[in-house]
Design brief:
Layout: H1 2-6, E1 28-32, E2 37-41, H2 53-72, H3 84-91, H4 95-98, H5 105-119, H6 123-145, H7 150-167, H8 173-207, H9 216-228, H10 232-247, H11 257-273, H12 278-285, H13 288-300, H14 306-320, H15 326-339, H16 345-357, H17 363-375, H18 382-394, H19 400-409, E3 416-419, E4 450-453, H20 454-467, H21 473-482, H22 495-514, H23 524-534, H24 546-555, E5 563-568, E6 571-577, E7 582-587, H25 601-612, E8 616-621, H26 622-627, H27 631-642
Parallel strand pairs: 3-4, 7-8
Antiparallel strand pairs: 1-2, 5-6, 6-7
Length: 647
């Protein structure tokens, strides 16, 4: 022991010599180093191979005080806890995140926790806890590197456990660790919860700031990346990466209203390009990143231009269809009302078409759209005119001002031309606009001419029939122009031909039944040709829903002779009493607006036509049906709606 107290040097090469004495004959000492604990037998030391343990412990203590704080803050990783893959991924992070790496709130939170720990006098306890973990980790690493025999390895592990027990005797680190976890958990838990709330609030605030300073270069680069993305997934990835960067503090944000609208527009456009199935679109729309992008778009709507609102509404209709974005479309209607005076013809057509394709009623908005369209009616393209009329008819929204303007502006039949081609009209087709600003309105010179194709004429005629406005001047010119197609071949092999024939046949029947005095019905030969194609079963297969089957089953309990699937001209009635000329329509969800429950245009036209044909019509709504519970209650409901029609 006297030698141990006076020794002050230690030869490094001595550490590599083998053990000279048996493990049990001499005591073991531990020499702490910066990396691991090295154990040697006292008998293996010469008098000159000594070390001042007090100096070593002092140095080690100072290093530990520095190291554990850096480790706690995440600025030091001496043990290699961080996985190589994660380090590599962080090195390849996006440029957008480079500016925000120093703004990590977690680092700031740890620094605050560190100050709190020091203020409460828990520094030594935390240091001891982290030092114990470090020793265990180093022991494992040394065990992997050393190539020793199985027997020696077992002896060393047993001896290590024995020495660790001696060193920690009386300290009870597990109890202190539990106490520390509870203490720090109480302190940091409340702090982190508060920080989490503040961070979320700051995140939302940063994403909601669309005014103030901007970085034009970043906005242009982001817009370019969005436009150059080839798939909907790539566009969403670009947008999500930018949102993450903004959330971490990237300022000013490149997420301008224009870029947000462009991102949604490009996602929908790329879906259309590959004809993505509805189920796939819905799954795409339910992704967390997509939901966040749509939420930001709703926040940015007031700052969007008229073209931006048009693009966003069109995109939502393509992505979500009839099933999603109920509250979002209410928001679009609310904002669009404030900017409808800035709409051009394309904006009016796209917004109206989006609401109609989603079966989403917006009476106030459509009233303003009708007024706006009437003021700029001379700027409408043929496609836009057909689309906006179809939208009003589909939702059965009144379009008086627009129809009046059409009569005034296009009052000469020579202004109407027909294009004899097979170009198919797409109700929701839009002109791509991804540049800055709105499209300039087209100026008309003199009296504008309209060059319609076949399908556009068919849709306009159907729209006037639904709205009950077939005595209008504009309709008469459109209908007369249709006669130029009598020589065009209508094949029963093509869906487009059948749809066109069905529309024309239905409009012709309405003219004969409701407006016979106008003398506008088709000639007999053309009527026969159209009627034959329109009645084909090739593309008119009727599907019977479970709701219809359930109602039909209960109708038998009424004891009346009901006939199912009864044809009347171009319509098929769900159930009829032929002798009493009573018709019962079983109307599912597709017959009504999804948000207001108001019957849609095609349903109103059918009801009006069947009534005009002399039938007493009753209808069963799926909403009222679902409100009744049990067969007895539903059977009473059927008898109630039929009692005024059955003798």
């Amino acid at each position: 022991m006297e030698g141990l107290l006076q020794l002050n040097t230690f030869s490094p090469h001595r550490l590599l010599q083998p053990l000279l004495f048996h493990q049990k004959t001499l005591p073991m000492v531990k020499i702490p180093t910066g990396f691991s604990t090295i154990r040697r037998n006292c008998g293996n030391m010469e008098r000159n191979d000594t070390v001042d343990f007090r100096n070593v412990d002092s140095i080690h203590e100072q290093e530990s005080e520095m190291d554990w704080e850096l480790e706690f803050l995440g600025e030091l990783d001496p043990l290699g806890f961080q996985a190589p893959k994660k380090r590599k991924k962080r090195e390849q992070s996006s440029r957008l995140l480079e500016d925000t790496n120093g703004m990590d709130w977690c680092v700031k939170a740890r620094k605050m926790a560190l100050k709190s720990i020091e203020a409460r006098g828990l520094t030594r306890t935390v240091e001891d806890l982290m030092t114990v973990k470090k020793k265990k980790k180093n022991k494992k690493k040394l065990g992997k590197k050393d190539k020793i025999s199985r027997k020696s390895k077992v002896l060393e592990e047993e001896d290590a456990d024995s020495n660790e027990d001696i060193e920690l005797k009386g300290v009870n680190p597990l109890a202190d660790a539990d106490h520390l976890r509870r203490t720090v958990g109480m302190v940091a838990g409340g702090m982190f919860e508060e920080k989490k709330g503040k961070t979320m609030e700051a995140f939302v605030q940063r994403l909601s700031q669309f005014s103030g300073p901007s970085d034009r270069r970043k906005e242009i680069n982001l817009n370019k990346a969005i436009v150059e993305a080839q798939t909907a997934e790539e566009v969403l990835e670009v947008a999500a990466e930018t949102i993450m960067a903004v959330g971490k503090g990237l300022s000013p944000s490149p997420l301008s209203p224009l870029n947000i609208a462009t991102a949604l527009h490009r996602i929908a456009k790329n879906m259309e390009k590959v004809s993505m199935m509805t189920s796939r679109r819905l799954a795409f729309a339910r992704q967390k990143e997509m939901s966040m992008l749509v939420g930001i778009a709703m926040t940015a709507l007031p700052e969007c231009s008229a073209q931006g609102i048009s693009n966003i509404s069109w995109a939502l209709s393509k992505i979500g269809g009839e099933l999603l974005y109920l509250s979002e479309m209410d928001r679009v209607a609310e904002v669009a009302l404030t900017k409808v005076e800035q709409f051009n013809s394309q904006n009016v057509a796209n917004v109206a078409g989006a609401f109609a394709s989603m079966r989403h009623s917006a009476p106030d908005l459509f009233s303003e759209l009708s007024e706006r369209a009437s003021n700029i009616v001379h700027t409408f393209q043929e496609q836009e005119l057909a689309q906006v009329l179809w939208a009003f008819a589909s939702l059965h929204e009144p379009a008086g001002p627009l129809l009046e303007s059409l009569d005034n502006v296009f009052n000469d039949e020579n202004q109407f031309k027909c294009i004899l081609d097979q170009e198919t009209f797409n109700f929701n087709e839009e002109r791509v606009v991804e540049n800055n600003g709105d499209l300039a309105m087209e100026e008309s010179s003199g009296s504008p001419d309209l060059n319609f194709n076949r399908d556009q004429l068919g849709n306009i005629a159907w729209s006037y029939a639904v709205l009950g406005q077939m005595d209008r001047v504009f309709f008469s010119h459109v209908w007369k122009t249709l006669s130029h197609f009598e020589e065009q071949r209508i094949s029963e092999q093509y869906r487009e031909d059948i749809m066109f024939a069905s529309q024309v046949h239905l409009v012709n029947q309405c003219l004969k039944l409701e407006y016979p005095h106008l003398g506008l019905s088709l000639r007999s030969d053309l009527e026969e040709k159209i009627s034959r194609a329109g009645k084909t079963k090739r593309f008119n297969q009727k599907m019977t829903s479970s709701f219809q089957k359930e109602v039909a089953r209960l109708l038998v309990s009424t004891g009346l002779d009901w006939v199912r699937e009864y044809a009347v001209d171009g319509y098929t009635l769900d159930a009829v009493l032929v002798d009493q000329k009573v018709a019962l329509e079983i109307d599912g969800p597709t017959h009504f607006s999804r948000n207001s429950g108001v019957p849609l245009g095609h349903t109103m036209l059918k009801r009006r036509y069947i009534t005009a044909a002399g039938w007493k019509l009753a209808s069963v709504s799926h909403q009222e049906w679902e409100e009744r519970q049990g067969e007895f209650e539903r059977l009473d409901y059927l008898r109630e709606i039929l009692k005024d029609h059955i003798v």
